[in-house]
Amino acid sequence: MSIESLYHPEQLSWEGYLVLAGNPAVPVEVPHPLRNHECLIYLYSTMQRALSAAALAGVPDAAIVKLTLQELVQTYAETETDMPRTLVAETPWGITCIGGSEPPPADGFLMVDNTTEEAFDDIQGRGFGERSDESRDQWDEGPESRRYALAHKGRLASGLETQYYRTIWNGALIPMEGLGGVVAPLEARRHGHTRELVRHTLSDMRDRGVPISTITTPFSYPFYRRLGWEYAFSRQTLTFSPTLLQELPQRPGTLRHYPYHPASGSIPWELALLYELSLKERYQGFARRTERQWFDRLKGTLTDAYVWDGAQGPEGYMILSMAKDRMDIRECLAVSDDALLGLLRAMGSLDSQTDQLVWDALPGTALDRWVSAPDQLKIAQTDQGMFRIVDLPAALEARTLRWPGAGTATFRVEDPLCEWNQGCWRVEFAEGRTVVKRAADDPQAGAITIQALSLIYAGTISAQDAVRYGGAALSLAQQELLTRAYRGQEPLLLESF
């Protein structure tokens, strides 16, 4: 691949200063501090920097020559040497490296691989804190994860990670991908790179048959709202003393330790069954967890799982994790009130180990109705989860609906990022299924934003709410139809990474 194909003309024509020493004159080479098998030839940005470098290298009488980046590459990139070289230029676009371990990436959207992994980890580390080698290795082993980046002028200008889930919507399994780790290096921000990267990522999701997406920890609600996501779900954290649960009535059943071994790499089927049975009547959008996703939920040397056995067999479970000054209740789910009360009483027995429990509870968990002193219970709601439809016809047609009725609605959809969702659509409901077709543009049809349609689809709001909040202009008949089709179950998008 030629140097011309990797860099813009303005970058190739940039002039810098090279330090030459010896007879014959050769570039002064700087040992790389992290790669002891490699040396660097620097093209400095100013004469003063070149002179300072010459003095530091012990050759203050070295010659300083001016040449372009293209001339540097043509002169020295192919020079035979016993030690691998990297050419480094301090251009206005940042430090540009040519040669060495990998060539710079070609501009545009790319999936991160071993040629761009180091640069990706660098911008992630600068944006979110340095990653350890161990965490990188764990990420690389995850089959449900992908990493994308956008390169601009030979350097990564933005990057993100996605996690794949199979989510359950009234019994239907629908692929979903969560976005995370969205970052741009400081020198590349406010140029539209992240918006372009997200758009390409959603296009790739659509091509792979993933019709919906979530963001569990957005860095900016306004930013993602402008890209078509909307706040759709919350998380609830309960903090309390175990003693608040000690007056609960005894329930028939027994508690047993569940011996999960993460090294087995298997799904804990007993927990997985209870997980889905306890959620399916009230919630939608929760994941059918893979082995790795269960491992993430249960990992940790101080983490234990317990199952409540009732008269009919296993009826609930909880996952506990001991922290420095508290006990975390990572999950507590039950298919009956007796099992829930049994698990809550078991939590009350933890007073010999901790005086504070922190429960990552389901939205709407009414623990204040069970405890002896509700005023001593701290309840914190985190409005963090965002959701959007990626592929409108695929998302709507993948759903099975609880409503068995029939009806048709035609409306225009506005999507600020995914142009394939734009335009007029005819949506037909019948016997719990949906058919979506393109429709001729009709000025009399209703109108709705992709944000509002996503919230209606998820069950977060009704169509009437969408009109009230300004996200839709629908007739009363259209509002009633969409509400009947999608209202009834809350979204529960628990998973994050």
Query: What's the rounded overall pLDDT mean?
Result: 87
CATH topology of the largest domain: Aminopeptidase
End-to-end distance, in Å? 37 Å
Radius of gyration: 29 Å
Number of strands: 27
Percent helix, as a range, is 25-40%
Percentage of β-strand residues: 25-35%
**Could you say which structural class the secondary elements and strand pairing correspond to?**
alpha+beta
The backbone outline, from C-alpha atoms, is: globular
CATH superfamily of the largest domain: Gcn5-related N-acetyltransferase (GNAT)
Stretches with pLDDT under 50, minimum 5 residues: 134-141
Question: Do you know the CATH architecture of the largest domain?
Answer: 3-Layer(aba) Sandwich
Total helical segments: 14
- The CATH class name of the largest domain reads Alpha Beta
Sheet of most strands: 13 strands, mixed
Count structural domains. Answer: 4
Would you mind describing this structure in some detail?
By secondary structure, the protein is an alpha+beta fold. It has 4 domains: 3-99; 108-210, 3-Layer(aba) Sandwich (Aminopeptidase), CATH 3.40.630; 242-355, Gcn5-related N-acetyltransferase (GNAT) (Aminopeptidase); 392-491, Nonspecific Lipid-transfer Protein, Chain A. 26% of the residues lie in helices and 35% in strands. Strands 8, 9, 10, 11, 12, 13, 14, 16, 17, 18, 19, 20 and 21 form a 13-stranded mixed beta sheet that branches. Strands 1, 2, 3, 4, 5, 6 and 7 form a 7-stranded mixed beta sheet that branches. A 5-stranded mixed beta sheet has the order 24-23-22-25-26. A hairpin with a 4-residue loop joins strand 18 (313-322) and strand 19.
